[in-house]
Amino acid sequence: MTRAAVVRAPRAPLHLTDITLPAPAPHQVRVELAAAGVCHSDLSLADGTLRVPLPAVLGHEGAGTVTEVGDAVTHLAPGDRVVLNWAPSCGSCHACGLGEVWLCADALTGAGDVHARITDDGTDLHPGLNVAAFAEETVVAAKCVLPAPDGIPLTDAALLGCAVLTGYGAVHHSARVREGESVVVYGVGGVGLAAIQSARIAGAGQVLAVDVSPAKEELARRAGATDFLLASDTTAKEVRRRTGGHGADVAVECVGRAATIRTAWESTRRGGRTTVVGIGGKDQQVTFNALEIFHWGRTLSGCVYGNSDPARDLPVLAGHIRAGRFDLASLVTERITLDGIPAAFDNMLAGRGGRALVVF
């Protein structure tokens, strides 16, 4: 038996229960989790913003140790340290053929599989976003794990599975920040903190952080922000004032709200670039008029998983971490157990803290 956090229906309370995992199928592995990050996407799954088959074991950002491998798995062995990859690419769809593995059409097909069963009543459970990391153990497709970088504790490496890849990729792959450019990051949570550090690594000349909570200023500045602004109706105007009257070269939106997306776009210079990382609901409508689109010449783009290729980017990130340029531990503001996840969700909704990390 394995202890896990289960959501039975949209907006239903998270339920901590014992589950029974099957033995790994030929192309699967069993992983004992060391840690799992609590991401806003997990909250979006729990409240129905993102639709996946339910009931499910949530959690998609984690790391652990392989304890068992299926008969057809030859590249992994018990004892291997791994990072979970919730969006594995198939290598054969149209997007993968273009090299855009983060848009793989088949990345989430595993979310519809039966992953485990509730021990008490036999209820079938699905694996959320493929990997079901809110559990002491999980069984996943072998393609859903990547080697954990050497020299990095597994509890820290868990963050590489989503927050860090997303924040780093948003800056380096989507916005393509260049040395000396100014960057404004909206939302100082786990992904926002990763984006701030990544902007500094990219050589940004000025990094502004915006959040609704004044308590986030210390976190933002520790990550490398040169300026901190409390979100308000005049945020875009203040960003322009602090960037020589022109606006930031790049805005990274990590909130997923229509008003914040619009503000991020308005806070960039003429010809500026806005990358939207935050996941909003269908009711969040962003509007522009045709004249302003022409006049400002700005670019607004979506960003999935940081437009990252985990197999390519994890070694690069590991180099930054080992060199001291990227501090994984600074993203974490609380370490909790499985039963602390509901409170971590509440903190996210209230805009408190950075990343909560479930440590097993």
Supply database-style keywords.
360 residues; alpha/beta; six-stranded parallel β-sheet; single chain; seven-stranded mixed β-sheet
Describe this structure in words.
This protein has 360 residues and is α/β, with parallel strands linked by helices. The chain contains eleven helices and 18 strands. The protein has helices spanning 40-46, 94-97, 154-157, 163-174, 190-201, 216-223, 235-242, 258-266, 290-296, 310-322, 341-350; strands spanning 2-7, 15-20, 28-38, 56-57, 61-69, 81-84, 116-118, 124-125, 137-141, 145-147, 182-186, 206-211, 227-230, 248-253, 268-276, 299-302, 332-336, 355-359. The strands form three sheets. Strands 3, 5, 6, 9, 10, 17 and 18 form a seven-stranded mixed β-sheet that branches. It has a six-stranded parallel β-sheet with strand order 13-12-11-14-15-16, with helices on both faces. The protein has a five-stranded antiparallel β-sheet with strand order 4-1-2-7-8, with no helix packed on it. Strand 17, helix 11 and strand 18 (355-359) form a beta-alpha-beta unit. Helix 4 (163-174) crosses helix 5 and helix 4 (163-174) crosses helix 10 (310-322). It is globular. The protein starts with a strand and ends with a strand. The model has no long low-confidence stretch (mean pLDDT 95).
**Structural class by secondary-structure content:** alpha/beta
| Residue share in helix | 25-40%
Poorly predicted segments: none
Radius of gyration from the alpha-carbon trace, in angstroms:
20 Å
Mean pLDDT: 95
Straight-line distance between termini: 15 Å
SSE sequence, one letter per element: EEEHEEEHEEEEHHEHEHEHEHEHEHEHE
From the spread of the alpha carbons, the general shape counts as globular
Counting DSSP H or I runs of 4 or more residues, the number of helices is: 11
For the sheet with most strands, the description reads: 7 strands, mixed
State the total count of DSSP E strands.
18
Report the β-strand fraction as a percent range.
25-35%
